Amino acid sequence: MNSASSHSPRPSRCRVLLILGRISNLPTVWSNCLAAWWLGGGGSVGRFALLGMGATLLYTGGMFFNDAFDVDFDRRYRPERPIPAGWISRGAVWAWGSLFLVGGLAMLAALGTLAGCLGLLLAATILIYDAVHKHTVLAPWLMSGCRFLLYLVASAAASRRGVEGATLWRAAALMVYVLGISFLARRESLPGRAGRWPIGLLFAPMTLAWPIGSASPSLRVASAAAVFGGWVLWCQSGKSSQRGRWLSGGVPGLLAGIALLDGLAVVTAGLDGGWRFSGLFLLALVLQRRVPAS
User: Fold this and answer.
1) Number of domains observed in the structure of the chain
2) What CATH number has the domain bearing residue 142?
3) Residues spanned by the domain of 164
4) In a domain? residue 293
5) Which end of the chain is more exposed for a tag (fewer CB within 10 A), N or C?
């Protein structure tokens, strides 16, 4: 029997599924959907609910496939993960992941041809990432590409403007931020001193605070940029990594910060409701206390 399973109490079936799905990151998926949805012109509550459920299922399915593909690696380096710990079989994880992925695609297809096609491209990128991310230096680009495509899916699902230049610009800013997180996470797992250059990618999206043609940002935009930048700084500080801290720092904290970046994207577009993203940010931090973000 695996040493992890012999010394750790067996969690409930529900908790095993939550761990596999890394549900603490779901608030950032929802914040991506909400921001891009508003940037695309919005629409009915019913359509947004369908978008949110479809994105949730795609994300969760991708996380299940991630563990299924990584089982050999996890047996050596992360025996506490559900499959090597003996809490669930690899076949069951494949089955759950397939069910979630198909269900998510069906929901996105119901939102229109463009949303469905972009959803299919997103699902393919998720699967490619899961299959090769332990074997290629391109993994951070694939990860950030998934978030970029999620923005496009959400914007395409909106019932009015759809995918426009403003959405593409903000999706690119999100991609750069996630690219920085991915490089940091990748380097933290390698021996030796990690380079600090990816930190620059984390601050690059703050250029959103200075819209083209504007000499200076409004007070509301500057405030949102300051909150986002301050959080990134805190996550990189030594204090944020101290044990016992309630607020997650490091990579988990930066992942929660995706919601703050979405709020900044909405505020720079002149839209109201940026405060809602603070709620999703806090929800991500709360969930990280219960379920690991990675």
Assistant:
1) 1
2) 1.10.357.140
3) 13-288
4) no
5) N
* Structural domain includes residue 5: no
In a domain, 4, yes or no: no
Global pTM reads: 0.89
79-118 pLDDT, tens digit per residue, is 989 999 999 999 999 999 999 999 999 999 999 999 999 9
Q: Model confidence over 213-265: pLDDT tens digits?
A: 455 568 888 889 999 999 999 988 765 555 545 566 788 999 999 999 999 99
In a domain, 2, yes or no: no
